[in-house]
Amino acid sequence: MYAIVEIAGHQFKVEKDQKVFVNRLATEEGKKVDFDNVLLIGDGDNTTLGAPAIDGALVSAKVLRHLKGDKVIVFKKKRRKGYRVKNGHRQSLSEIVIESITASGAKKAAPKKEAKKVEAKAAAPKKETKKTEAKSDVKVEEGTQDLSKMTVAELREMAKAKGIEGISSMKKAELIAALS
Predict the structure, then answer these.
(1) Could you tell me which residues come within 8 angstroms of residue 149 by beta carbon, excluding any fewer than 6 positions away?
(2) What single string gives the DSSP state of each residue in 69-87?
């Protein structure tokens, strides 16, 4: 049985008891890690393909150790210019061993939490825009608001409401002077 699973942004074809080097995971050595973003599971003649991931599929692994990869030399040169730069890089890696591949019965908890956060963030700006619109209406009526803290777009809306002409070519300072 094998599975294609997404681990730390990369896709790997894994089997049970296989050791894999992946980008550094934020898990301590010796701890167990579960990956629920399984894209494909193959078991002999049966192949299950996700769209994009298989619901209920889970790959369990154990972090063996954290290490650094081989050194890669990055040399840059521009001919006839005297420009030469030599840099090195060692990638941070984690060595994991695949303990089990489960085709069904696992629950996805993390994506649901992220979806709620995204909805809350999407709803928040709408409320703020309504508040700013309401505040701008109050500002026009009161006339005591500090105009220098407002954006040019808000100032143009206020000028348009008062009937001031030529606001499209005015700068922020000119708009403040016209509204005062």
Answers:
(1) none
(2) EEEEEEEEEETTTTEEEEE
pLDDT, average across residues 62-74: 97
What are the pLDDT digits (tens) for 28-43? 999 999 999 999 999 8
Predicted TM-score (pTM) above 0.70:
no
Tokens at residue 156, please?
């143009």
176 DSSP 8-state letter: H
The sign one gets for the Cα dihedral 20, 24, 25, 27 is: positive
Contacts 24+ apart (CB under 8 A), 108-115: 108/36, 108/55, 108/56, 110/36
Q: How far is CA 27 from CA 62, 66, 70, 132, in A?
A: 10, 9, 22, 43
| Residues forming beta bridges with residue 78, ordered by sequence position | 83
